[in-house]
């Protein structure tokens, strides 16, 4: 039954493609209509509009045998959104799904694909593939020197704790970085040769010092 969601269906009467809900005659063999033809009482061949029928919606099939209530289409949209927007952007992911909110999307992905049966099978197999990062930057004693702004080692915490903190151990990153707007201090900072006087230069260097202090706190 799950393969039905990948099939293409056309109305037997008007021959137009049917997207979503369709009407299947339980008397005639392989006879399905779109809602428009069904509501108009269409008849063709041996089919009569008083035949018993049933509504069929292939995209509403449940992939997993539990009571999560997520349809096959919702699961596919969830995985596509995770790949497109990346893990953690739950508002965008929920908007892509269209029928779920951010909390529901996060709960389904974590419980199903991280901590559920799928996650237990797939994640251990890739845990050894975590890349080893090497610092290849030459020694530097400037305000942004690696020895000054170097990050701490990744936190050694459980998956449940990481989810509560919105922390991603494999990326060693948080969904929302501490002091996330610190870069605004220097993002538009420029030195204009011949126009900046000593006071302008001093003020801009002060901004760089402030930014360096923010990086140390971060």
Main attributes?
3-stranded antiparallel sheet; chromatin binding; 7 strands; 37% helix; single chain; transcription coactivator activity; Wheat Germ Agglutinin (Isolectin 2), domain 1; 218 residues; two-stranded antiparallel sheet; mainly alpha
Structure report:
The chain is mainly α and 218 residues long. Among the domains are: 7-59, 2-Layer Sandwich (Wheat Germ Agglutinin (Isolectin 2), domain 1), CATH 3.30.60.90; 72-120; 178-217. 37% of the residues lie in helices and 8% in strands. The protein contains eight helices and seven strands; from the N terminus they run ββββαβααααααββα. The strands form three sheets. A three-stranded antiparallel sheet has the order 4-3-5. The protein has a two-stranded antiparallel ribbon with strand order 1-2. A two-stranded antiparallel ribbon has the order 6-7. Helix 2 (72-85) packs antiparallel against helix 3. The chain starts with 8 loop residues before the first strand and ends with a helix. It comes from Graphocephala atropunctata.
Present the secondary structure layout.
Layout: E1 9-10, E2 17-18, E3 22-25, E4 32-33, H1 35-39, E5 53-56, H2 72-85, H3 90-97, H4 102-114, H5 117-126, H6 146-149, H7 159-165, E6 167-168, E7 173-174, H8 198-217
Antiparallel strand pairs: 1-2, 3-4, 3-5, 6-7
Helix pairs in contact: 2-3, 3-4, 4-5
């Amino acid at each position: 039954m799950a393969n039905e969601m990948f099939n293409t269906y056309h109305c037997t009467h008007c021959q137009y493609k049917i997207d979503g809900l369709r009407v299947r005659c339980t008397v005639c063999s392989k006879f399905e209509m779109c809602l428009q033809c069904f509501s108009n009482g269409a008849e063709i061949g041996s089919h009569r509009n008083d035949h018993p029928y049933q509504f069929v919606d292939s995209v509403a099939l449940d992939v997993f045998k539990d009571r999560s209530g997520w349809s096959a289409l919702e699961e596919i949209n969830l995985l596509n959104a995770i790949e497109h927007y990346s893990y953690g952007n739950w508002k965008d992911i929920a908007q892509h799904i269209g029928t779920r909110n951010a909390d529901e999307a996060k709960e389904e992905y974590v419980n199903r694909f991280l901590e559920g049966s799928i996650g237990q099978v797939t994640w251990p197999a890739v845990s050894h593939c975590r890349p080893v990062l090497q610092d290849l930057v030459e020694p530097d004693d400037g305000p942004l020197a690696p020895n000054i702004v170097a990050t701490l080692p990744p936190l050694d915490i459980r998956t449940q704790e990481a989810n509560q903190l919105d922390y991603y151990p494999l990326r060693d990153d948080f969904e929302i970085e501490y002091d996330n707007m610190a870069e605004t201090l220097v993002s538009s900072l420029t030195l204009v040769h011949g126009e900046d006087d000593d006071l302008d230069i001093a003020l801009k260097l002060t901004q760089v010092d402030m930014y360096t202090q923010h990086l140390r706190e971060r």
